[in-house]
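Reviewers of the previous submission asked for a worked example of the structure-prediction workflow described in the proposal, so we include one complete record here. The input consisted solely of the amino acid sequence. No template or homolog information was supplied to the procedure at any stage.
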Amino acid sequence: MEKIMLYSYINEKQQSGYYERLSFDLNGKINIDLLKEAFELICGKYETLRSIYKYKNIDEPVKIVTTRSKISFELKDL
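From that input alone, the workflow returned the following structure tokens.
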């Protein structure tokens, strides 16, 4: 399944059906630091959320699982 997803990404050069961006609507008082920490804990637990693929300038794609679970976290106050 992962090879199919990577192949689709490389060949379509656009968002494929396998790519999912998460977006949440939250109301009320929110502890942003705690929310970010919780998400980092989840990423730390599941290696698939920390996986990247090297595929340029090599013969076969290589899956790399990072050891760190730091994530990109963007907050938009609407």
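The mean pLDDT is 78. We consider this example representative of the routine output the project will generate in years two and three.
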